[in-house]
Amino acid sequence: MHFLNDIALDIFSALQRCTSLITLKKAHAKFFPHGLYDTNLLTKIAVLYVSFDKVDNARCVFERVSNPGSYLWNVLIRGYANQGRFSPSLGLYSKMMQKGLKPDRYTFPFALKSCAGLSDLKLGRLVHQHSVCCGCQHDVFVSAALVDMYAKCGNVEAARLVFDKMPVRDLVSWTSMISGYAHNGCNCETLDLFDLMRDSGIRPNRVGVLSVLLACGNLGALRKGEWLHSYVIQTGFEFDVRVATAIMDMYTKCASLDLARRLFDATPGKDVVCWSAMIASYGIHGQGRKSLDLFNDMLRATVRPNHVTFTCILSACSHSGLLEEGKRCFESMVKEYGIAPQLNNYACMVDLLSRSGQLFEAEKLIENMPVEPDASIWGSLLGACRIYGNLDLAERIADQIFLLDPFHAGYHVLLSNIYAAKSRWKEVEKVRKLMMRRGANKVQGFSLIEFKNVVHKFGVGDRSHPQSGKIYAVLDELAAPMKRLGYVPLTDFVLHDIEEEAKEEALLYHSERLAIAFGLINTPPGTPIRITKNLRICGDCHNAIKLISKIVNRVIIVRDIHRFHHFEDGLCSCGDYW
């Protein structure tokens, strides 16, 4: 017995000196000849295996422990969660509960992390209940994990309730809530909470800065984004390539492409993500040639493109109608770089062919794809059917789309647009009734404009704004000069079988026009007006804004869900190709 105790002490001493996986395995091997099953030694070995990211080895050791304590259970649950193996992590959590062991403040953060990783809100709520029963819900680490879990599961309201009840909020909890808002599209809330965090004396970390930059870009909040850029310089994050790339993306989305390029040129150590982001920036602004030039610069800089890079360059070709160039890029993926096209790459190629009028070639590409097409790929082709008025193909495609995604309102609306353009009002009504039966609610369109660090939001026919009287007066004043310049309302974009006069009035007060009128009222003459719209700009508004830009002698920049439109002197940068 004394002999075995001496060996155990010798092994424990060896474990204390382990600095690599090799030395750990050597120490572990000393167990087997002597049949040692000392719980403390096994626990120490399991912990060390997890520290070297060898969770499966640790699990084998764990299974040899006759009665593992909470500490060892927590180590394994944490190890699996940190590896992104969320199901085994939660499986151990469940077994731990079945064994009658009480989870603690070290258990819940990683069980919740696993729920978040699986987007399992139901299970996350159950773990939340367990934390309450165990009296751990107010622990700062558990609370932060709860905020993160609810946010990543899409329930930002529950996340905020937990956040507001926290007795102490550290940097992690603030960052979790800010990031949760940003990644759930709650952009104004992101900026408001960021300001509140700074007022509380908490200095943001890298993740927080990235989240706020994302929100600024989504809102088109250029002034706030510029302030944040200066803050990044003051805090030293400017040398982080990922942060620099996020600032570039923010400037791009705020229609300041020159600032984005200036920052790109000044960023040292540009990686493939940074290059791809700048290529994409030119693409969404309709400058496909510059995207191609930059892609060639990237290759000369010996930065190897990946499938995301090709998605960016193919998308740029699509937005600029560069059919042959896009085809060559698509072919080079496999032939020159050995990259198998993924779904996004095929989607861009289908979009390029569709927009170029090659509808049947696009359909053939979809049918011959080695990967299963999703609804969005068929949706690109359906959108082209609207542009080119191909009703027969549209009806055939719609059947495919509704099988894959029967609840997406956008595809129903697109088909309605196609029927309405042909004055097929009975079919329009059928599609609308189908939407209602399926519960596919149409996304409400809105437009945003920033003025004096405040983002103003407008909906179609919106009269809630304090300046609505002036806004509508401006639009009414513009109507006559627009008609003199040849404006004829495209009433087929109004999906109702109503009188033409009523259709024209419905078009006049679309959200982007209200936002532009607000900009004309509140900004100095000659300054650009920047608008962000959550949906695709309709054909009638596109025609109208071209004329408005000429009448008021302003550059008007509209970012819709797909791309930017730079309107100036009666023309658009997209060349009416969008």
Characterization of this structure:
The protein is mainly alpha-helical. Helices cover 66% and strands 5% of the residues. It has 30 helices and 6 strands. It has helices at 2-16, 21-29, 39-51, 55-64, 70-82, 86-98, 108-117, 121-133, 140-152, 156-165, 171-183, 187-199, 206-219, 222-235, 241-253, 257-266, 272-284, 288-300, 307-320, 323-335, 343-355, 359-368, 375-388, 391-404, 409-421, 425-438, 468-484, 500-508, 511-522, 539-552; strands at residues 446-451, 454-459, 529-533, 556-559, 564-568, 571-572. It has a 6-stranded mixed beta sheet, covered by helices on one side. Strand 1 and strand 2 form a beta hairpin. Helix 15 packs antiparallel against helix 16 (257-266). The protein is globular, with a radius of gyration of 29 Å. The N and C termini lie far apart (83 Å). The model is unreliable at 495-503 (pLDDT under 50).
Condensed summary:
The chain is mainly α. It has helices at residues 2-16, 21-29, 39-51, 55-64, 70-82, 86-98, 108-117, 121-133, 140-152, 156-165, 171-183, 187-199, 206-219, 222-235, 241-253, 257-266, 272-284, 288-300, 307-320, 323-335, 343-355, 359-368, 375-388, 391-404, 409-421, 425-438, 468-484, 500-508, 511-522, 539-552, and strands at 446-451, 454-459, 529-533, 556-559, 564-568, 571-572.
Question: How would you state the average pLDDT, rounded?
Answer: 89
Radius of gyration: 29 Å
Structural class: mainly alpha
Q: Helical element count?
A: 30
Enumerate the strands of the largest sheet in spatial order, edge to edge or round the barrel.
2-1-3-4-5-6
Tell me how many strands there are. Answer: 6
Strand fraction band? Answer: under 5%
Question: Quick one: overall form?
Answer: globular
Largest sheet: 6 strands, mixed
